[in-house]
Amino acid sequence: MMVSPMERGLDRVVALVDMDCFYVQVEQRLNPALRGQPCAVVQYKGYQGGGIIAVSYEARACGVTRNMRGDEARKLCPTIKLARVPEAHGKADLTRYREASVQVIDVMSQYAIVERASIDEAYVELTAQVQEKIRQMEGHVPIPSQLLRTFVEGWPRDDECEKEKPLNDCEDAKEACRLHGVTTWLQLTASDGAVGNADLNLSIGATIIEEMRAAIEAETGFRCSAGIAHNKMLAKLACGLNKPNRQTILPHSSVPGLFSGLPLGKIRNLGGKLGTSVSEKLGVEFIGDVVHYSKQHLEGHFGEKISGWLYDVCRGLEFEPIRPRNLPKSIGCSKNFNGPEALDTREKVRYWLKELATELEERLVKDKETNQRVAKQLTVGVHMDTKGQNGTLSRCSAMTRYDANKIAADALALLNACNTAGRGQATWSPAVTCLQLSACKFSEVAVGGTNDIAGYLSANAKPLLPALPKMGSSFGTPPKSVKDRGSRTIGIAELFQRATAKNQQCSQATNMSFDEGGDNSTKEGNCKGEHTSFFRKEALSAIHDDDDDDSNSQRPDTMEDFVISTSISPTVDDDSAETTPDLAVRSSNRCLEVDSNLDLQQDSGIIDTLSKMKKEGGNFISPEDMENCNECGKTVSMWELPEHSDFHFAQSLQKTFSASCEKPGLMRGTSMPASQRAKRRAAPPAKRKKASANHTLDSFFKKSS
């Protein structure tokens, strides 16, 4: 069945929950004496009483509004109480308000999908919850007693209720009007058809929001208002119709009446240049007037994309989904520098960037601990005093770690291009009137994971490969316990110094011969990188075991293994980092360090056995593991055959290259007749006459003359 344009999106139920004068409620919770009193929250600066950022409804009744100064508010309302925002890092500290917002979001998330819109607003997707509740109600509809704080926009339809009356004027009459409107609308909803079903969804959604708002007040002490409609745009408009501590249902049938007197600027995205363009080109003032223009007419003025959106919006249709987002997409801080406070020197800019970076670091670290995520991008914004010209810009860079010094340095590097005073000058021109730092593009991190590179490069960290069994059973008993020298911090330079010292010791160790008879070809170390057979190692291990069993000698194992890191200051535990005899994970150029106190006389059994095997050919490989090479006929170990075949392939490849380069005088791609090639081969160039071996200085001058 075809769905008419007016029915699109009417199956959704969306709500917007808005906290009533949120900053004031937070201060009232901290100081209960402020409840019921006219009060306001002012900025931390005390100039003229401070700028007001939030006003209670009691103070609003006296004419106090936001953007006033505290002194001006006292003139209008002498009994007003002013609560001041805390200060940190030279600017307002909003931590207490953010934490209160998180508490509210946590309660809302228990009921439905929540999309955080701001510190005091959140959208709620109720469609699935409404459908589930309809199945549970089995055809019943909500009753007025379930909607005690709910208004229905457009109901009742006569003029017996005036919405514009003040709250203290005829409260009883207004409540009676509200109850009459809700009752009438619910009765009509129960008897209607398809449209009634859409309104039924809204009524059930309103009961869920009533429960949610009651839970928020019970668990946090905060009161809020809400709007319930079929999309986010209408829910936002409905929320502000009957504040405070009330909620409003906006049925689709009431949209034309509401839009007929709603200015264009009240619609999101129509409050700026686009709204001005629509008003000028169409000659309209209210959003409801746009409905008289066809889609083709709108396309002629605004293009296909904007005209399609405008055509739907003026009819109350909008399809933006609720995106589950309980956390902010970005974390940032900013500060304004008005008038004489403008930053006009490089040192001032550097100082305030450091202050903002410190606050940003604190908040990011706390966010990481709470939400297991890290930011990947740093954004720097600046407003400059350019005397009427556009002096606003922003720059982005990667965020590698949460460090205030690093963040401030990166931000300053991004802003250096804005300074026209020159790199060597102490001044900053044009002067900065606002600085902003923010972090975004968050990604999740594993619980318990380490994202700091210093943590990865610490020698105390667990090795990437599992530790193999200690080699005491093959090369002697396990080493004696080393003195616990504690944990200390080392740098890159010391690590390389250690490596250099080890290489020197290794070279000394390799000069020691296991063959006392003068045969120095057999070494237990392999410092020059030549390949050592696996079977040779196994044989050495077995011989060493036998010798240990007979003599019961105790030799310290002096092999050391450590994690080489690139950290600036990794922490290394000497006990765990220098006594791990792990040969299997050692690189091919690591050498077996021989203790200077090693008594080679006790190893006579090993030396004699090695000398004997050396004389017999030094081959420790079983004949079954040998194969003949097809190229040269040489008998090669099956383990070395692939490498041996590669050698022959390289030889043939070299011959091919040599043959192609025999005629350097010819251009590539040209050929020489066979007769000329044979002639050149037959007549090699004459050799130079061999000069006399001995010449005297006199003979040389005689030849020259």
Automatic annotation (TrEMBL):
Key word Transmembrane present: no
CC cofactor: Mg(2+); Mn(2+)
GO biological process: DNA repair; DNA replication; error-prone translesion synthesis; response to UV-C
Record keywords, A-Z: DNA damage, DNA repair, DNA replication, DNA synthesis, DNA-binding, DNA-directed DNA polymerase, Isopeptide bond, Magnesium, Metal-binding, Mutator protein, Nucleotidyltransferase, Nucleus, Schiff base, Transferase, Ubl conjugation, Zinc, Zinc-finger
Ranges annotated as biased composition (Basic residues): 677-692
Chief location: nucleus
Location within or outside the cell: Nucleus
Coiled-coil regions listed: none
Domain of life of the source: Eukaryota
Region (Disordered): 663-705
Bias kind Polar residues: ranges: 694-705
Reactions catalysed, as given in the entry: DNA(n) + a 2'-deoxyribonucleoside 5'-triphosphate = DNA(n+1) + diphosphate
Positions of the UmuC domain: 14-271
Entry-linked InterPro entries: DNA/RNA_pol_sf (IPR043502), DNA_pol_Y-fam_lit_finger_sf (IPR036775), DNA_pol_Y-fam_little_finger (IPR017961), DNA_polymerase_eta (IPR052230), Rev_trsase/Diguanyl_cyclase (IPR043128), UBZ3 (IPR041298), UmuC (IPR001126)
Sequence ranges assigned to domain UBZ3-type in this UniProt record: 622-656
GO CC entries: nucleus; replication fork; site of double-strand break
EC number: 2.7.7.7
Keyword Lyase (UniProt): no
Single annotated GO MF: zinc ion binding
Membership in a protein family: Belongs to the DNA polymerase type-Y family.
Subunit note: Interacts with REV1. Interacts with monoubiquitinated PCNA, but not unmodified PCNA. Interacts with POLI; this interaction targets POLI to the replication machinery. Interacts with PALB2 and BRCA2; the interactions are direct and are required to sustain the recruitment of POLH at blocked replication forks and to stimulate POLH-dependent DNA synthesis on D loop substrates. Interacts (via C-terminus) with TRAIP. Interacts with ubiquitin. Interacts with POLDIP2.
PANTHER family according to UniProt: DNA POLYMERASE ETA
Annotated protein name in UniProt: DNA polymerase eta
Natural source organism: Eptatretus burgeri (Inshore hagfish)
